[in-house]
Amino acid sequence: ASSVGDLVARARAECAQGPVMNLVLSTQVSLPVLGDPFVETYRQEAEEWQSDPKPQDLHFSHAEYMNRGGNALDHIISELKKKSTGNRACIGLIASADIVGSGDSPIPSLMVIQAGFKDTDHSLLILSMYFRALEVSGFLPINLAEASLIATRIHTAIPEIRRVEFVIHAFRAYENRGFKRLRRAELDQLSISEITTLVLSNAFEELIRLLQLKMGPDSIVVRDGLARLLVALDGVEWGERVRTPLERAIAA
């Protein structure tokens, strides 16, 4: 693709008719890539995914997995400076122990990040990322903005870099425009006392808003907020009218 935005558009078009297996995406852009209008649109979310510790509304962040063995980007930079044509400027986010027996517990789809140079010429940085699954409509733009943040950090330490080539390998790439991007619903972040206060004050508009935000496709099913709401309805007259559908939603 000719740009980061073009890369996303092409990926969306490729996945429009259904999932694509082993999709490889690449684009080469000039540095600094931060400032690109498309990247800037997703920069804030990318910074949250690159935060350690994670923000409250995320189930996890990439950075907290990246840094489990120490500062990941410091390691990559050190390896690139020590041996620019080496193959150890890489980090794995998850190990077999994170996957085996994990069921539906939330873990990153991003598994490996690797950076390097083709030869001793440091003008072009290659930055590759491997995903076990990749949603291309909402998540791919964020992931590319994350890659841009990482490339910028490396560029700061190795200023002779002029361009970066992003290469993304997705075992399963798919499009889901309603995907919630692994964020915890606002209802699930409220305590039982906060939900009870809304119920007892008959804050119907706010409760409806919270339930509407809870709706929609998500890869992680969390029922905590619904369960707390059900408890908060005990003894509330109007609560009997919503108890049955709420119980069905929790049991689904």
Descriptive labels:
alpha/beta; 42% helix
Gap between N and C termini: 42 Å
What is the number of beta strands? 6
Count of alpha/pi helices: 12
Q: Give the helices and strands as they follow along the chain.
A: HEHHHHEHEEEHEHHHHH
Kindly estimate the percentage of residues that lie in beta strands according to DSSP.
Answer: 15-25%
How would you characterize this protein structure?
- This protein has 12 helices and 6 strands.
- Strands 1, 2, 3, 4, 5 and 6 form a 6-stranded mixed beta sheet that branches.
- It is elongated, with a radius of gyration of 21 Å.
Topology:
Layout: H1 4-14, E1 20-30, H2 37-41, H3 43-49, H4 62-66, H5 72-82, E2 90-92, H6 96-99, E3 110-116, E4 124-131, E5 134-135, H7 139-157, E6 163-174, H8 186-189, H9 192-200, H10 204-214, H11 224-232, H12 240-251
Parallel strand pairs: 4-6, 5-6
Antiparallel strand pairs: 1-6, 2-3, 3-4
Helix pairs in contact: 3-7, 9-11
